[in-house]
Automatic annotation (TrEMBL):
GO terms for cellular component: cytoplasm. It catalyses: tRNA(His) + L-histidine + ATP = L-histidyl-tRNA(His) + AMP + diphosphate + H(+). Residues 19-334 form the Aminoacyl-transfer RNA synthetases class-II family profile domain. One of its GO terms (biological process) is histidyl-tRNA aminoacylation. InterPro entries: aa-tRNA-synth_II, aa-tRNA-synth_II/BPL/LPL, Anticodon-bd, Anticodon-bd_dom_sf, His-tRNA-ligase, HisRS-like_core, HisRS/HisZ, HisRS_anticodon. Keywords: Aminoacyl-tRNA synthetase, ATP-binding, Ligase, Nucleotide-binding, Protein biosynthesis. Belongs to the class-II aminoacyl-tRNA synthetase family. One of its GO terms (molecular function) is histidine-tRNA ligase activity. This is histidine--tRNA ligase. PROSITE patterns: AA_TRNA_LIGASE_II. HAMAP family: His_tRNA_synth (MF_00127).
Length: 416
RNA sequence: GUGGACGUAGCUCAGCUGGUAGAGCACCCGGUUGUGGUCCGGGAUGUCGCGGGUUCGAGCCCCGUCGUUCACCCCA
């Protein structure tokens, strides 16, 4: 292995020019609607006490049981790289008493998350998510607003080939009533060992089986939606009503299964049509018991997480994201040492006035520098040589038209 | 974690039944002294992912390993 090249760890996503600009654009677009809705940034560590995820996300989930990056730090503590965002936010809210003031607490976050899965199209071991959490309000209107915020982010990017799937997981009483009947139904099925094991961990999982015979077998299984308590049912209906009013279209999917244990009530998922097997571009829901489970007060909450990597893939698949070039307003080509110093000063001044300015360093020669100017896509170019230094006047060349005009250096900013 | 495909210059790839590597794009220089995008000429570039094996000889065959990719599982 001595000669093995060092390369990035397996399954990570990386972005560099020019694609990094698209990534940046997607990330910023997805979070913009949340900022406009009064959500505020919460910046958290990417690693947490392992117990946080065990208790928050749930031992029975795949995420916790086999996908976490867990290690022992030098003090012998068990640390885990965050596999999702909500648990960490709840921890911080409880720890710092953010829930002691006015409710709801409205937060947004953005950053890397980690899951030790086998990489695949749109599935990475380190991936990027933006998300929001609204804590301490049961009003169905906030459910609708949260969902509409996610939808607005997708729409602002020009996405259209996706759908919003909705369901309600109801409250505890709804779920336990359903569970009895579902288990009873499943016991009547002839399952192979792996499937039986999945059913044992979480019977709802069987709704998600991709095999045709299983889909058929589950056709008559009792649906949780039919077991909702009147409160849950009422709440969900109102959410749907608000979404209608907001013109956010959705399809009901009573067979939807989510991978995290904390979800209750309103639950949703955004699925893109042009992606491969990993087609979920975002998802979320209510988690009315999570806060208390983690030792906080009994506050409800709702939030979502959106996969920036996948949304970028989706935007590219739809062809709606443009490589609008990073363009400088001015590209300066200095000829000689004195000119270089002058270039530095001019650039500094113009940047101070908000202009994007680049300088051709390195004494490349005029022709080479002009080529460089062309490649950066700068809108204007000036050459700084002896005559310009003495006259303090330059020929400001507009690169698109090829025409140039004589301009005083002091008034350059007016022409950019 | 399971299974399939793949791994050759910065990028996309070619390389016939094994005889020690090529193209296009990109990049650099130049086409008479200070103005780009087209065109023309010239140039640099790879331990053919890594390790081992078979062979007189392997980019081409075999094994292992690392990685990529697609699917399962699961999810953003």
């Amino acid at each position: 292995m001595a000669n093995q090249k060092i390369q990035a760890p397996k399954g990570v996503s990386e972005y560099f020019p020019d694609r990094s600009r698209l990534f940046e654009h997607v990330r910023d677009s997805l979070i913009a609607p949340a900022k406009k809705s009064g959500y505020q940034l919460i910046e958290l560590p990417v690693f947490e006490d392992t117990d946080l995820f065990r208790r928050g996300v749930g031992e029975s989930t795949d995420v916790v049981s086999k996908e976490m990056y867990t290690f022992e730090d030098r003090g012998g503590r068990s640390i885990t790289l965050r596999p999702e965002g909500t648990a960490g936010v709840m921890r911080a809210v409880i720890e710092h008493g953010l829930d002691r003031g006015q409710l709801p607490v409205k937060l947004w976050y953005s950053g890397q998350f980690f899951r030790a899965e086998r990489p695949q199209a749109g599935r990475y071991r380190q991936f990027y998510q933006v998300g929001i959490e609204a804590i301490g309000l049961d009003d169905p209107a906030i459910d609708a607003e949260v969902i509409a915020i996610a939808d607005a982010g997708f729409k602002s990017l020009g996405l259209s080939k996706y759908r919003l799937e909705m369901t309600s997981l109801g409250d505890a009483s709804s779920r336990s009533a359903h569970r009895v009947d579902l288990l009873n139904f499943i016991s009547g099925l002839n399952l192979d060992e792996a499937t039986a094991e999945r059913a044992r961990i979480n019977p709802l999982r069987l709704f998600d089986d991709k095999r045709e015979e299983m889909k058929k077998a589950m056709q008559k299984a009792p649906l949780l939606m039919d077991y909702l308590s009147s409160e849950s049912s009422e709440h969900f209906k109102k959410v749907l009503g608000y979404l209608d009013r907001l013109n956010v279209s959705y399809v009901l999917n009573p067979r939807m299964v989510r991978g995290l244990d904390y979800y209750t009530g309103t639950t949703f998922e955004f699925v893109h049509e042009l992606l491969g097997a990993q087609s979920g571009i975002g998802g979320g829901g209510r988690y009315d018991g999570l806060m208390q489970d983690l030792g906080g007060q009994a506050l409800s909450g709702i939030g979502f997480g959106l996969g920036v990597d996948r949304v970028l893939l989706a935007a590219e698949a739809e062809g709606v994201i443009s490589q609008e070039a990073f363009v400088s307003d001015l590209f300066i080509i200095p000829l000689g040492e004195e000119a270089k110093q002058m270039a530095l000063t001019i650039a500094h001044d113009l940047r101070g006035q908000g202009k994007v300015v680049e300088i051709a360093f390195g004494d490349r020669g005029l022709k080479g520098s002009m080529k460089a100017a062309d490649k950066t896509g700068a809108t204007h170019t000036i050459v700084l040589g002896e005559s310009e230094l003495s006259s303090l006047t330059v020929d400001l060349k507009h690169m698109k038209t090829g025409k140039s005009s004589s301009v005083k250096i002091a008034s350059l900013h007016q022409h950019l």
